[in-house]
């Protein structure tokens, strides 16, 4: 008997592209399963006139989708991992983390070709405090302006509005095949310039903990290395109690069989930046260790001050 699986997705072009990619991979392995997409509008999608850090709260792009899972209106959901809070709603689990796409940030220019080419006071568009803080750390003269909307909206704003450059995630651009179509010069910001967000470039496929059928389906998408790295990053985020209102970054890679995690906490203006790089085997132990070292360096004071004054 054919079983129908309802897959939850945000309505954005990128979210739907990611969801259709997941379905295509599953369909190839399970041709007898019928998949359908349920589009869900989240709080983060509705509020476009203010930066995410000012909206506040966790799970701005996830909460409504998790509600649909809990109420059994959908069977699983596809998220960008960087949008998923460090703690899931009760009864829900990450059923699979597929192989990660490019985790770096991409700086797209209106006219210039490199970060150093930007004139003093150049206007860079990003609503991410993490990106803004790290760019200001290396170029304190830049003017950071908030920019919201999906990929094509922000590219149009680069063209039509007073931006000299904008920052987007490389993963989204690659998944949408936008990089080949760009009419502007761009660079990938290396980790020394802009350490990625926790989970950036990875997908999270969330389902109900009790749904053994769906959990078994999703197992074929699981990538062991990406999963290990993301667990380490998310342990760091949870230990710091961070969200989008705090400039926190974390990226883990596996090198010569060792897991290496880089973590960063910064003030919004980028003037005070704490960074730790450490290696280990256990992703949870490593994530906690990097968080502890950042706390010893003063990360908690930065986070507390931002929350009190934010």
From TrEMBL:
InterPro entries: HemC, Porphobilin_deaminase_cofac_BS, Porphobilin_deaminase_N, Porphobilinogen_deaminase_C, Porphobilinogen_deaminase_C_sf. Pathway: Porphyrin-containing compound metabolism; protoporphyrin-IX biosynthesis; coproporphyrinogen-III from 5-aminolevulinate: step 2/4. Keywords: Porphyrin biosynthesis, Transferase. The keyword Transferase applies. Binds 1 dipyrromethane group covalently. Its EC number is 2.5.1.61. It holds the Pfam family Porphobil_deamC. One of its GO terms (cellular component) is cytoplasm. Its cofactor is dipyrromethane. Signal peptide: none annotated. The porphobilinogen subunits are added to the dipyrromethane group. Monomer. Tetrapolymerization of the monopyrrole PBG into the hydroxymethylbilane pre-uroporphyrinogen in several discrete steps. This is Porphobilinogen deaminase. It comes from Listeria weihenstephanensis. The lineage of its organism: Bacteria, Bacillati, Bacillota, Bacilli, Bacillales. The gene is hemC.
């Amino acid at each position: 008997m054919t079983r129908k699986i309802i897959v939850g997705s945000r309505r954005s072009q990128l979210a739907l592209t990611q969801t259709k990619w997941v379905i295509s991979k599953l369909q190839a392995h399970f041709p007898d399963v019928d998949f359908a997409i349920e589009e869900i509008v989240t709080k983060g999608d509705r509020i476009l006139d203010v930066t995410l850090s000012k909206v506040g709260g966790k799970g701005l792009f996830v909460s409504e989708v998790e509600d649909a899972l809990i109420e059994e209106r959908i069977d699983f959901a596809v998220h960008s991992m960087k949008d998923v809070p460090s703690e899931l709603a009760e009864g829900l689990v990450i059923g699979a983390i597929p192989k990660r796409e490019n985790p770096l940030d991409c700086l797209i220019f209106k006219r210039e070709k490199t970060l150093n080419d930007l004139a003093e006071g150049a206007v860079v568009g990003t609503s991410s405090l993490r990106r803004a803080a790290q760019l200001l750390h290396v170029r304190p003269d830049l003017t950071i302006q908030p920019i919201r909307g999906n990929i094509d909206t922000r590219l149009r704003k680069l063209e039509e509005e007073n931006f000299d450059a904008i920052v987007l995630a490389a993963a989204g651009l690659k998944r949408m095949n936008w990089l080949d179509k760009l009419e502007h010069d761009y660079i990938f910001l290396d980790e020394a310039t802009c350490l990625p967000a926790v989970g950036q470039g990875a997908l999270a496929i969330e389902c109900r903990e009790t749904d053994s059928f769906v959990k078994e389906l999703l197992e074929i998408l699981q990538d062991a290395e990406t999963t290990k790295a993301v667990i380490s990053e998310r342990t760091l985020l949870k230990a710091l109690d961070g969200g989008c209102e705090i400039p926190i970054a974390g990226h883990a890679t596996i090198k010569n069989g060792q897991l290496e995690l880089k973590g960063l906490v910064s003030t919004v203006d980028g003037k005070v930046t704490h960074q730790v790089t450490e290696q280990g085997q256990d992703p949870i132990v490593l994530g906690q260790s990097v968080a502890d070292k950042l706390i010893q360096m003063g990360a908690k004071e930065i986070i507390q001050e931002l929350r009190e004054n934010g």
